[in-house]
Amino acid sequence: MNSLVFFAAGRSSVLSHAGACYNLVFALVRFTLMSPTPKKRLFLIDAMGYIFRAFFAPMDRLQTSAGVPTKVPYLFAAMMRRILENKERPPDYIAVVFDHAAPTFRDKLFAQYKAQRPPMPDDLSIQIPFVRRYCAAMRLPILEYPGYEADDVIGTLARLASERKDEELETFIVTSDKDLLQLVTNTVTILNPTKNDLLIDEKKVEEIMGVPPSKVADVMALMGDSIDNIPGARNPNDKPAPGERRKAGIGEVGARQLIQQYGSAEEVLKNAADVKRSSYREALQNCGEFVLLSKQLATIPTDAPAPLDLGLMKIGPPDVEALRELYSELGFTSLLRELAPLTDNRKTDYLQFESAAKMQKYLSSIKGGQPAAAWLTLDATEPDEEGFGTRALGVEISTEESFARAALNDAEDKTLKIMTDWLADPKRPKVLHDPKLFHLLTANENAKSSGHLDGILHATMLYSYLLRPTTAKHEFAEVVLRYLNRTLSGAQGERADFLLRVAPILREEVEKLGLLKVYQDIDLPLAPVLARMEGAGVRVDPVELDRISTKTAEEITKLEKSIYSLVGFEFNVGSPQQLAEVLFDKLNLQPPRRSRAKSRSTAAEVLEELAAVHELPKKVIEFRELTKLKSNYAGVLPRLIHPESGRLHTRFCQTGTATGRLSSSNPNLQNIPIRTELGREIRAAFIAAPGSLLLSADYSQIELRILAHLSEDPVLVEAFRRGEDIHSRTAQEVFDVAPFAQTREHRRMAKVINFGVIYGLSPFGLAQNLNIDQKEAARFIAKYFERYRGVKEFLDRQIAETRKTGVTRTLFGRLRPIPEINSPQPNLRSFAERTAMNTPMQGAAADLIKLAMIELDHRLPKENFKSRMILQVHDELLFEGPETEISRLTSLAKEIMEGVHKFSVPIVADTKVGPNWRDMK
After folding, report:
1. Does the predicted TM-score (pTM) go above 0.85?
2. Which CATH code for domain 40-310?
């Protein structure tokens, strides 16, 4: 009861109002006693409904580093959190109800019950124990009883909850199963998670089923249930003769109408002769016994031996340590991050040096051959703290015996220079996270080393990338969380300490998976190469870029006016919603046949198809291309020119793609188009320094040549060995057209087929690309594989092997997990198959150019070149060098790129020279 406090001026005042006060107090007490106590909420979870929903969810399949699938427990946890953390309906009690493997009364009633269900997939059954462990760690009681399905247990608990006298409960059954709608009452509600947590009360049941909850089983009795093999108004023993259709039963609409008319399945059978529709009448008269059987099967009993133990079901704190162990085992780093960090008291005392001399003395005292971890604290005043021109503010060093921290507070950064000498000493084994960063920070400090760091024992970022190439998260905090189950606290010295501890764990995994050679031969030696390329930068003409930016802005304005004139009014062309209204409502253009969710899509492929029937979509495509180039390049590049060097210093990333290809940022120079006029103008602004020229060396058809090598297809190998035009050869093989009779269109179509095949292009995709009939596209693909049988056999082997192992390995040993290849979702599985087909070519091409870069970086100074390698874009390397060196540089680039690895077919690097990146010959 709420307390009531009186304030009075004096005795007379109280007495004079005694009667009124008594009445007020009595009224308040009566109101308080009569006020309804808020109902407690009980949630009953249909566990297998959640589990199957998670298994078939259209998302990439998760797995541990050992290949164990983990998508089901991850999504189960996410779905449970939606229930547990819901502020509108916070649960007070909860239970997770599972089916029991033992037979139930339904199996005894009907031997064919659920007989048509396929066995549970192995990669689902292996995940269910993790779900159970999650429930145990969250202290969510798991209920299951032999002889009873989960529905029966849920029905029993819902009944018991509604009958409680001591505590009024509001029960929510979390399920998408229609059978459970029969359990809805004034105190029992269904929460359907597949319908955006739709709440289904008695009124909503009537909207959905056409009958009240008490009649749902009657509707099910007539219509049956194909999932559970409940026959309904059909004889399950009737087998149609060959060529005959199975006898019709009664569908959902008909079943509703009959129950609405007659009230129950039994009454429908009594009045079967009066049913107007002949097929229904015949089904009811011939299959009445199966209707009654179906009602027994569909009816959920509420007498299971399941006590309503609210003490067991009360929401309480989870077992954090058990959750941490489970999340760590399954690799759920995002969930681990949300748990309270573990305290770690290791090495709380550290040496601190305020002078370079003391730091030098400490470094010298570290025993020779003893691994030491080094972590630099960076100056974060620049937009990209790991980029060109940054400097270190502090350093942490950790060994097994001690660790130290130095503050670089001297104006000349003497400590960093001392660090550089120490890092460059090959007798000092170092443990680093990002080796490229150390090269960047030390390249200008020690000219003799030219940025080379010797004696790197471990580079944890590169290890992490090799082990998990499909994730973009390789920051040190993520690595520590993933492999040590620790959250960084920010304490001074802890990063160097954790660096030393996590490195051997990662190294062991790398060795176990056979990735050490990739690390030692490619990834680690590439880091200093990239650092030098970033430091060199590329020269650009800011005046030319400003001119292009102004011109582009004018072109965009003209395009906008042209677009407005086509529709008769102005709108935001960059808004997908407004554009959809113009295309589909104002112009009444018919989008291609797509799913309901994408029926109003304004994606590029939709606009390209609509451009065939109207001019507006074509202009929108041009508008998007221009605005993208202006916002990403023409309008941005001048601002990124370094004030001291006068050059652009892009950041190369070794860990950004699943295939092993490099990526770049600030600016991203990988995507400047070469086929559009504006793209070519932007490339023309990339210029050589006075007295120098640019050299471009570009691998020719490298992925097709690697395909020939890997597949050993005799036709493909012969064509490359003879130096034939491979697209012309494919046109000859597929279209039966001799080379002298081929047109440009023949060669264009053959090129699409050549590259489409290794990317798993389907007949539908090829038909769209070539604008031909799908049957004709299928015929072209069949003809291709008929002539290039070795290619077909290789691609089939790739898919089969990846399906078996869940990973694919490239020519140089790099791994790429593709767990989706065994996904139950056809679209995910198809995408995975295409990935399994093209990864060997993409991955080998990516590593081949890296090997060439490493060798070129070694040979250029060795042979006294002043020329520098300044850019890598896909299969192309860009160099800048004095005009007097260009001829010799061209020969060296071709020699190394074409010979750095031996293939069964010739590797060709095309070279071009010019004053800028566009005008090259």
Report:
1. no
2. 3.40.50.1010
